[in-house]
Structure formats: C-alpha cells, structure tokens
Amino acid sequence: MNTKIYLYLGGACIMAIAAVGCVFELAFGNPKFGTIATVLIFLVSSPATVYLFGTAVKEGRMAQ
C-alpha cells in the first residue's frame, strides 16, 4: 500500500489532537501558550485535519 496514505492519516490524527486540545484549553481555563497562539493553532489545525483526512481517503480509493 502507498505510504503517503499513512502519512496523511498520521498528520490528520496529530492535527485533530491539536484542535481538540485547543478547544479544551480555551474552554476550561487560561491557555498555556496564550489565547492568540491557541486560537491560531486551532484555526490552522482544524482545516488541516479535514484536508489531510480527505486526501488520505481519496488516495486510498485510487490505490484500490
């Protein structure tokens, strides 16, 4: 199987964990890296999760 698919899925997992972590940081207290940095991480990681997962699914379908 194509190793790019695994890289896309791994990246999507990491980005999803970052996005969820940012939500918890913003909702339940004072963010460790500050509010602005945490919001920026969230704004980057959320669409990156969707893009990387969608790309992995598309590549996986093409590999079949």
Looking at this protein, list some descriptive labels.
single chain; 64 residues; mainly alpha; 2 helices
Please tell me about this protein's structure.
This protein is mostly helical. It has two helices and no strands. Helix 1 packs antiparallel against helix 2 (35-63). The chain is elongated and about 45 Å long.
Give unreliable regions as ranges.
none
- Total of DSSP H or I helical runs spanning 4+ residues: 2
Mean pLDDT: 95
**Shape annotation:** elongated
Q: Which structural class fits the helix and strand makeup?
A: mainly alpha
Distance between the termini: 9 Å
Instruction: Tell me the strand percentage band.
Output: under 5%
Biggest β-sheet strands, sense, barrel: none
Query: Rounded to an integer, what's the Rg over CA atoms?
Result: 14 Å
Order of helices and strands: HH
The number of strands is: 0
Q: Helical proportion? A: over 70%
Structural topology:
Layout: H1 3-27, H2 35-63
Helix pairs in contact: 1-2
Quick structural gist:
The protein is an all-alpha fold and 64 residues long. The protein has helices at residues 3-27, 35-63.
